[in-house]
Amino acid sequence: MATPLRHDWTRAEVLALFDLPLPELIFRAQSVHRERFDPAEVQVSTLLSIKTGGCPEDCAYCPQAARYDTGLKPHKLLSVEEVTARAAAAKAAGATRFCMGAAWRAPKDRDIDKVVELVRAVRALGLETCATLGMLTPEQALRLKEAGLAYYNHNLDTAPEYYGEIIHTREYEDRLRTLEHVRAAGLKTCCGGIVGMGESREQRAGLLQTLANLPEHPQSVPINRLVQVPGTPLHGTAELDPIEFVRTIAVARILMPASMVRLSAGRASMSDELQALCFAAGANSIFYGEKLLTTGNPDTEKDLALFARLGLRPMPQVEEEQVVHARITTDDSVAA
Ligand code: SAM
Ligand code: DTB
Ligand code: SF4
Question: What's the 265 CA to ligand 2 centre distance in angstroms?
Answer without folding.
Answer: 6
